[in-house]
Amino acid sequence: MSSSLVAYDDSDSEAETEVPNTSSRQTSLPSSSVNRVQYFAPGSLGTTSTYEMQPTENADSSGTSTVCEDPPEHYAQNSADLTSPYCKRAYSGHTALSVSYKNYEQISSSSTNSGNGLSQKRIHKDSTTAIKGIRPYIPKRLRQENSSMPDNKESDQRDSSDCDVKLGVSGEQTLRKVSELIKPYLGSKYKLTEVPKSLVFYMSKHSGPVNEIEWCPVREQSHMLLSASMDKTVKVWDAVDTGCCLRTYSCHSCAVRAARWSSCGRRILSGGFDSMLHLTDVETGKQIFSSKNEFRISALKFHPTEPNIFICGGFSPEVKAWDIRTSKVLRVYKAAVQQTLDILFLPEGREFLTSTDAVSRDSADRTIIAWDFQSAAKISNQIFHERYTCPSLTLHPKESVFVAQTNGNYMALFSAQRPYRINKKKRYEGHKVEGFAVGCEFSPDGTLLVTGSSDGKVFFYNYHTARIIRTLSAHKEACVSAIFHPVLPSLLATCDWAGGIKIWQ
User: Fold this and answer.
1) How far apart are CA 260 and CA 273, in angstroms?
2) 70 in helix, strand or coil?
3) Cβ contacts of residue 151 below 8 Å, gap of 6+?
4) How many whole angstroms separate alpha carbon 182 and alpha carbon 75?
5) Angle between helices 21-42 and 93-114 (to 10 degrees)
6) Secondary structure of 340-352 in HEC code, one letter for each residue
7) Phi then psi for 461, rounded to 5 degrees?
8) H-helix or E-strand containing 201?
9) CA 179 centroid distance within chain
10) Which of 293, 364, 428, 468 is least surrounded by CB atoms within 10 angstroms?
11) What is the pLDDT of residues 417-448, one digit of tens each?
């Protein structure tokens, strides 16, 4: 009996003295800092950088290594030459990680050596005050007993609500900066748009087709470019200065079909084939709004005057208006169609248009439907009568007209006022659509109309004459989107079905 009591006493003392409370309290603060460094370090070491990673030959002793190759400061002069020498820069990401890890080892070793007489039991009373940000030590027996408590469920839900974010090489520094190239144009009006000729950046970090790209609507932060891809990710690029990827968001489990900037430029709304809607904070990656939809999403648009309201459509006869503040559906717009291809708000946001895939044998009525936003009533469904679907719609920046991209390999011009009549004298044709969701857009001054093509080219049309000004051989695969920069004149971004994004000047 005495031997069993002694054995039980020794085992209990070993269990308690194996991880003393004092050492755990002293090392909890550095461990939390190490976790933060380890969480951000993988992304900051170039996992989402734009160019290939190559080790530097002359690395210094501190452990610095080249993370990515930055593009040249001067633009490429020849559009046919897509490759140019890039300057290499070394970033000390490994140094910060190693230093913090060494500090952690020193603190932990000093704390364990300071405890003399480990075989003795220590009685310590926990203080009622807890330091913010430090998780208290819980013995192993209590952790096993509380493993089935509902607190773990809450932590799982909190962790699942955060988006998996990967940081670029200089994401923290360049996310909220004001580009030196944009500063001279902030206080002046937009100048005349010129047709771009030369390639600036080629960014190919997406492993799947790029569905949509959009410049940041905030003029001071318009160096950032948003892209949504079939590889389940949403990326934010510095497409003006460096061409590097700043953020990668992996919130969706399927392809991301649509992604939009909020009007403040601090949030990203995304929807995809997993029927999920996510409103993500750009800097932290946290989910501000997240909801499961009843259908796969293919189109998203924010209201032009109410920033907390957006409309989503997809593989369903219904189009829904959501309120971010309440996370509820405000209105449902029902139409006898199968899929919504695109959504376009008319000026002031009182009315909006939807393009659908409803095509009958003789005509295509219900291809473009006009809706009243407040009453959810149909204004007109007899706008476009030709037997072609319209994958994209765009509004003129100054005049009350809009353009519809059609699968008939041409763009049609309509009036943005009732009864939304088509202009039969103007037709922008010459490019190819061939079933791709090819987008089109006006230049900020309204003089040019640009569109992609299924053969990889970019076509520039004169808005007034409907003639082709220039054709740019941009991609080898289908070019699905081409958009002008809102501040810098003649700066163009294009994306293709192979996953590449190019910036032209």
Assistant:
1) 16
2) strand
3) none
4) 16
5) 170
6) EEEEEECHHHCEE
7) -110, 145
8) strand 199-203
9) 20
10) 468
11) 999 999 999 999 999 998 899 999 999 999 99
